[in-house]
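Quick start: what a row looks like.
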Amino acid sequence: MAGNESRLVGVARGAATITEVTAAFEDQGFRGQFGPGERGEVECFTCKRRSPAESMAVEHLRRLEGASDPSDMLAIVALTCPHCDTPGTLILNYGPVATAEDDTILRRLEQSPPPDPASTSV
């Protein structure tokens, strides 16, 4: 072992918390919030409108696993509402604990168009 580094078995290293990731996205301008809707739609909490997930451009997607429980699997997605242009974040479960809605939305987000570089401010 180099220096005073201790090696703890079973402790995640370099793992960011949900708070750290959402704060970083907020620092980049993604201050709005989105929630999962039914039938693969994403709801914007600013304008209260729903959009099909595949129609939303994903700016960033970060997957997290819990340091104490790797089955705590979350995806934090930074995107922009196509109706009111609010940039924000959507938090979904993935893996074995994902709801059917979360799973459908994540699959559809993978089919979404890439962000338009001319309209991206971050």
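That is the whole record. The helical segments are 18-27, 100-109. The first strand starts at residue 32 and ends at 36.
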